[in-house]
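Budget justification aside, the reviewers requested a transparent look at the raw inputs and outputs of the sequence design task funded under Objective 1. We therefore reproduce one unedited record. The lines immediately below are the structure tokens for a 546-residue chain.
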């Protein structure tokens, strides 16, 4: 980094955030030796053991070494509760602390994006080849999957009898079995595929930065460096041009300049925060905080969408679950030895192993629920496992109509933003929450699970009415860590669209946002791999435009 009085270092491209999108962008742009690329990451390197051991998410979430430690504002839909809101603060970003589930969503998600933006480039048939471009699927290349790319997709390395029984019960309840959730129609029940390699987590830092980028003389990486604000200069047509950033290194503020473009890939929380600190956002908010308005963009920080999971817990008898294995030293020793010798067993498992996509009622035109089923139970994430055998059937509404906000509290870059998801704030979301709990009960009541004598521990069978179940959903639900939409793309005549369909920020030159915040609507499933696809697409556009 530069000394305080030295000329500001200059690069062709500055990428802010070395997470899912930023790692791929850095790889693709620095492949051209004529481009100088700087990648800035507020967190540290991914050299922490628990980043790489799959079960290590338990030690990364809530850990200041790897997590921003955000909390939501008190939420009326959650009966006034706050939620822990994990976001990756480490190379690889959320791909270093997430559930590793490889999920694209449904074809209709992308067709909807195309309709919203007026750009057919976002149609499913145009996005599918982009997914395949960086994929390395365990089954090899076919009509839906790619091979030889950087993003490894594997089967999980363990199974559980209790989860197999749940899958059979789901089929008895009318949900078909599926071997592949990623063909554009994810309806069905089966084990999730995961981003792992031989029993290790496969994050985007390993996939796209190491070793490729590290050996390129035109690539530079700064870690432990937090962007304070973006810098602007007058453009030739009167519109401001983003020309760089002011960066806090932990010791001093350093200015860095971009001759071509700055790309924000700080995520659906970090990117709107940086935009607002830099004078791009709702003018009334900026003026109230004394920040000069560069561009009045009311959509910055609006349209926050997330998947809220309702965690129903069932006690069982005669079943092996993680509760029974991991609650005494001998079981923990066996688990550790199994992973050490075979890279399998509970230490290799994703937070959720079994998935199901189905409809909250038969009149739904498409699957609108996702289940994450786990052979364990606890009161809340980060709390100890229960001392009785149990499984958890978490269910989320894939297409919530509730939207929240992300707004800075002050002009100080170190202050966390106010995150207000506004969960369960619409009648439709509350109705679907009640319906999803009833469906969970119907699945668990099927013959396939009868031998385990499941007993509903949460929310409790005494709650039956729509009103009771919606209120109880507010008591037991939590985020599944899929915030999107806070810098969404859209048409030119949409006043709330922050970006055009090529992810360029409206009202200024030289600035894009490439992360999950750009999604106009949330995908029907886990959001990490769709974000990677968006970055692949943006990199191609940036290369072509130059």
């Amino acid at each position: 980094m530069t000394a305080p009085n030295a000329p500001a270092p200059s690069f062709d491209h500055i990428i802010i955030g070395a997470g899912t999108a930023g790692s791929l962008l850095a790889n693709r742009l620095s492949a051209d030796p004529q481009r100088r690329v700087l990648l800035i990451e507020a967190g540290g390197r991914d050299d922490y053991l628990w980043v790489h051991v799959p079960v290590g998410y338990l030690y990364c979430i809530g850990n200041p070494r790897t997590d921003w430690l955000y909390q939501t504002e008190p939420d009326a839909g959650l009966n006034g509760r706050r939620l822990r809101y994990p976001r990756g603060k480490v190379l690889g970003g959320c791909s270093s602390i997430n559930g590793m589930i490889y999920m694209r969503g449904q074809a209709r998600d992308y067709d909807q994006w195309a309709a919203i933006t007026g750009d057919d480039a976002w149609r499913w048939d145009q996005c599918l080849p982009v997914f395949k471009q960086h994929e390395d699927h365990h089954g090899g290349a076919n009509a839906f999957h790619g091979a030889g790319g950087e993003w490894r997709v594997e089967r999980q390395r363990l199974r559980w009898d209790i989860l197999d029984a749940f899958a059979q019960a789901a089929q008895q309840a009318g949900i078909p079995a599926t071997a592949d959730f990623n063909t554009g129609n994810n309806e069905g029940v089966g084990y999730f595929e995961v981003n792992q390699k031989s029993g290790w987590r496969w994050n985007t830092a390993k996939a796209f930065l190491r070793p490729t980028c590290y050996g390129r003389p035109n690539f530079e990486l700064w870690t432990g460096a937090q962007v304070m604000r973006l810098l602007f200069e007058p453009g030739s047509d009167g519109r401001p041009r983003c020309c760089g950033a002011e960066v806090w290194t932990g010791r001093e503020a350093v200015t860095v300049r971009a001759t071509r473009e700055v790309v924000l890939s700080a995520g659906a929380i970090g990117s709107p925060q940086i935009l607002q600190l830099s004078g791009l956002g709702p003018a009334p908010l900026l003026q109230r905080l004394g920040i000069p308005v560069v561009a009045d963009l009311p959509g910055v920080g609006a349209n926050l969408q997330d998947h809220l999971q309702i965690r129903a817990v069932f006690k069982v008898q005669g079943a092996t679950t993680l509760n029974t294995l991991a609650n005494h030293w001998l079981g923990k020793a066996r688990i550790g030895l199994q992973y050490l010798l075979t890279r399998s067993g509970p230490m290799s498992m994703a937070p959720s192993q079994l998935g199901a996509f189905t409809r909250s009622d038969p009149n739904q035109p498409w699957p609108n629920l996702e289940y994450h089923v786990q052979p364990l139970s606890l009161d809340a994430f980060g709390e100890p496992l229960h001392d009785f055998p149990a499984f958890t059937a978490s269910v989320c509404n894939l297409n919530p109509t509730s939207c929240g906000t992300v707004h800075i509290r002050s002009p100080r870059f170190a202050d966390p933003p106010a995150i207000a998801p506004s969960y369960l704030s619409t009648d439709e979301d509350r109705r679907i929450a009640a319906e999803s709990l009833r469906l969970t009960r119907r699945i668990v009541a099927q013959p396939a699970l009868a031998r385990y004598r499941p007993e509903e521990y949460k929310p409790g069978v005494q709650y039956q009415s729509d009103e009771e179940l919606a209120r109880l959903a507010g008591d037991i639900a939590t985020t599944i860590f899929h915030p999107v939409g806070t810098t969404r793309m859209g048409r030119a005549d949409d006043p709330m669209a922050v970006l055009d369909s090529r992810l360029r920020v409206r009202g200024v030159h030289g600035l894009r946002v490439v992360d999950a915040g750009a999604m106009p609507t949330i995908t029907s499933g886990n959001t990490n791999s769709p974000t990677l696809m968006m970055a692949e697409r943006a990199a191609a556009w940036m290369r072509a435009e130059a």
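The first strand starts at residue 10 and ends at 16. Residues 1-153+198-304+406-421+483-546 form a domain with the FAD/NAD(P)-binding domain fold (CATH 3.50.50.60). Computational costs for records of this kind are itemized in the attached budget.
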